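Customer escalation, tier 2.

The customer says the design service returned an amino acid string that "doesn't look like it belongs to this structure." They asked us to rerun it and document both sides in this ticket. The original structure tokens are below, unchanged.
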């Protein structure tokens, strides 16, 4: 998680404070905006570990008086309710989209054209459906400078170089027919965006790597004028052309998105602070294993490959930890962690950001586990040359577990594509008479896949060291689908 772009903007005696808080793993941005003349502040789209916002406000002598969000999020568990409970701030949420999209907990409803103020800052609400029916955006005006619009907080409506995807309700929540409807709503919403002054800064809710859109730019902000020049979705085209282009090639939808939608709509539990994870002893770990609890090993992939507790799944403590634990864990069942102790704070935060609150505890002493006579399992790593030899002799089935778009751009000849998140649905389709070698871009995602298959009893398996990046560096062939 990064805190960045902290700045004060002075205009005729008014000082507007702005800070972007960015969570790398989910590519999710939240914002704290303050009026330093009155010491009041607004937080937009907060994450669930809210101490970040409290620390910023304390440092800048600001009091968080207002909290809002752009829509019912699918990719992370909102911290809006948590932050309101901690600060007593007004919680202002969308009342648009119809009765099916109303929040299920206490708040002040916002409609298109509504205004609210904190200090010398005025916020105008704009209903911008398409990504979701209830989606709203915020046009921020600095009244001390002559009531001039300064920033447009676009949430998942407009990104740098792209726009939000309209297919999540259909693909994640199973609401048939909503993706085309959403695409057409988005086409109309963009007409409102085009009418904004060119100078207005556009501040999106996600950056590159988010599953809430395709081909998102990595630059943290843009302007209305620049997007009108370069954003494909804002160019002259018919509604039919827009809908077809928008729906084509959207990334795979993480399995936990539907759960986030439900929890964020009904209202996440208020934690009252970061929860404490329990350190497990050997007997407690054995009891958890005997109970059939899922075990996530967050150590690095090479340490894991040299020796891990059988049945554990290797989801390394990288920025994408939240995403993959959300994809693989059952939200209704407790689970345990295997990790290094210095990972505790980071992993704890990553779990609560996607609502994984049922962690039984963590275990750190794999060495003691082995010394007590318990077996360790290893995961074979193969180099590109070894894989090439196996492939030439037809002794291997290569599984490419990257996103479909990555596979189409370039893949190893003969590789079968199964997205990592779909492995559990394809177990019966895997060959049993040949070694399986999994790969991704660098070996991280494929370590998750290999360990998951190991946990399901598939043992003749290996991970391509360095992934397709190492394969290409070694000079071996890559084929393309398009």
């Amino acid at each position: 998680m990064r805190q960045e772009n902290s700045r004060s903007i002075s205009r005729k005696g008014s000082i507007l404070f702005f800070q972007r808080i960015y969570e790398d793993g989910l590519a999710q941005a939240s914002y704290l905006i303050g009026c330093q003349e009155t010491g009041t502040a607004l937080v937009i789209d907060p994450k669930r570990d809210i101490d970040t916002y409290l620390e910023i406000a304390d440092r800048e002598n600001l009091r968080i008086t207002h909290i809002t969000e752009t829509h019912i999020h699918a990719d992370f568990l909102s911290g809006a309710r948590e932050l309101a409970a901690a600060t007593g701030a007004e919680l202002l949420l969308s009342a648009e989209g119809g009765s099916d999209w109303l929040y299920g907990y206490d708040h002040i409803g916002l409609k298109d054209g509504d205004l609210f103020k904190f200090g010398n800052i005025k916020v105008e609400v704009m209903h911008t459906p398409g990504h979701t029916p209830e989606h709203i955006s915020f046009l921020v005006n600095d009244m001390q400078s002559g009531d001039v619009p300064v920033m447009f907080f676009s949430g998942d409506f407009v990104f740098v170089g792209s726009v939000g995807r309209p297919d999540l309700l259909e693909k994640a929540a199973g609401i048939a027919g909503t993706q085309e409807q959403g695409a057409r709503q988005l086409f109309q919403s963009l007409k409102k965006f085009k009418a904004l002054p060119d100078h207005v800064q556009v501040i999106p809710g996600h950056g590159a790597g988010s599953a809430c859109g395709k081909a998102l730019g990595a630059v943290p902000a843009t302007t209305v004028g620049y997007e009108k020049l370069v954003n494909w979705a804002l160019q002259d085209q018919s509604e039919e052309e827009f809908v077809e282009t928008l729906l084509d090639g959207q990334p795979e939808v993480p399995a936990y998105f539907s759960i986030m939608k439900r929890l964020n709509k009904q209202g996440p539990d208020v934690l009252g602070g970061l929860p404490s994870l329990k350190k497990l002893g050997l007997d407690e770990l054995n009891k958890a294993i005997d109970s059939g609890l899922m075990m996530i090993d967050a150590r690095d992939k090479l340490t894991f490959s040299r020796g891990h507790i059988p049945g554990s799944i290797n989801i390394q403590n990288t920025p994408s930890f939240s995403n993959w634990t959300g994809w693989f864990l059952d939200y209704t069942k407790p689970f345990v962690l295997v990790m290094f102790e210095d990972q505790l704070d980071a992993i704890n935060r990553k779990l609560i950001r996607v609502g994984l609150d049922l962690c039984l505890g963590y275990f750190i002493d794999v060495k003691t586990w082995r010394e007590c006579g318990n077996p360790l399992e290893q995961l074979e790593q193969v180099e590109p040359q070894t894989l090439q030899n196996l492939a030439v002799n037809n002794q291997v089935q290569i599984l490419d577990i990257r996103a479909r778009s990555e596979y189409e751009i370039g893949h190893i000849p003969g590789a079968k594509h199964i997205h990592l998140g779909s492995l559990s649905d394809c177990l019966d389709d895997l060959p049993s008479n040949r070694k399986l070698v999994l790969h991704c871009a660098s070996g991280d995602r494929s370590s998750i896949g290999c360990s998951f298959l190991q946990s399901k009893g598939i043992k003749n398996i290996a991970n391509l060291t360095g992934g397709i990046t190492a394969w290409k560096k070694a000079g071996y062939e890559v084929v393309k689908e398009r």
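Tier 2 assessment: The sequence is consistent with the input. Confidence is low (pLDDT under 50) at residues 8-13. The chain is about 30% helix and 25% strand. Sent an explanation to the customer and offered a walkthrough call.
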